From TrEMBL:
One protein family per Pfam: Aminotran_5
The organism's place on the tree of life at top rank: Archaea
Organism of provenance: Halorubrum trapanicum
Chain residue ranges for the region called Disordered: 1-31
Record InterPro entries: Aminotrans_V_dom, PyrdxlP-dep_Trfase, PyrdxlP-dep_Trfase_major, PyrdxlP-dep_Trfase_small, SP_NH2Trfase/AEP_transaminase
Cofactor(s) named in the record: pyridoxal 5'-phosphate
Protein name: Alanine-glyoxylate transaminase/serine-glyoxylate transaminase/serine-pyruvate transaminase
Skewed-composition ranges (Basic and acidic residues): 1-16
Entry similarity comment: Belongs to the class-V pyridoxal-phosphate-dependent aminotransferase family.
Amino acid sequence: MSNRHAELGIDERPPEVGELTPPDRTLMGPGPSDVHPRVLRAMSTPLVGHLDPSFVEIMDEVQELLRYTFRTDNKWTIPVSGTGSASMEAAIGNLVEPGDTMLVPTNGYFGGRMKSMAERAGGEVVEVSAPWGEPLDPVDLERAFAEHQPDVFGFVHAETSTGVLQPNVPELTDIAHDHDALVIADCVTSLGGVELRVDEWGVDVAYSGPQKCLSCPPGASPLTLNDRAMDKVLDREERPRSWYLDLSLLEGYWGDDRSYHHTAPITNVYALREALRLVAEEGIEERWARHRRVAGDLKAGLQDLGLEMNAPDEYWLPSLNAVRVPDGVDDGAVIDRLLDEYDLEIASGLGALEGDIWRIGCMGYSARPKNVEYVLAALEDALARQGFDG
């Protein structure tokens, strides 16, 4: 060690770090979900350049597969380089500019994140109110539009923090379009897992993450915009505050020209392509049905244990099951036991529901009968350890 380094407390010896050996978990939390072996194999294939002709062909294939999965013909359908929060910020940060008003929901954690992103984009934010654990009511939405006349309306299709699936989406989008507003849908926990029809339902912009119902590692996140939404992006008076997520620039890379913007996460795009191939092979409607069928068995098993779902049956979200923690049970101790004894991941609540619910995912490759049986048996044991017998 040099004298100068010694004075600064810098150790010149290389750190001794062993081989990577993460635990082999069964992932039944709110995401990520278990990754399909074919997706993992795709990630081990050789790297090519992000402008290599072979990669350009892969980009085209990913876009077509995303259109199928979103149920859209939108030209502007891409994977954003980043996690689901990057596709979320790309949607909101490009659609909302200074002087715009965005209407956001209050019925879950991710409505609050929409609010934060819209404010950072320079927009004014107003809220349409609904309690946590309930969907938005079209009557309340109409009232909020009449009062505030927002330019953009955002809603969460599948609220990961409450286990609520928003019904009547076409009714919500009709209200927004009657007031000439654009609609942004958070589909992070619904894409590839529960029914979602972007074009038919009148959604202008939808974003998602790959690590939930698509069972793909995070890193390349789905986003789709229709022509009306993209026209607003291209006609902005001010450039978006993020250069990296500026869709008018990303259009050059993912559009017809394929001009350099950034180095895409090539391996993640490989993974997303394979995950979407699995969606197409299964068939999107059969995939929706499988999630509902397998998650229905999970829901029935949880109720047999004496547990109560957070969401009523009519708003139940198959891909994310929010379960009330019984009185006298330590939610954190149950989570820790499942992880320590069973290598099984579930999660606690977020925000206003922290400590009140468990969040049990049933998504993608994790939505299999053997996983349901495993989580029910492990949960029964963990509850019995605390004296709960249903």
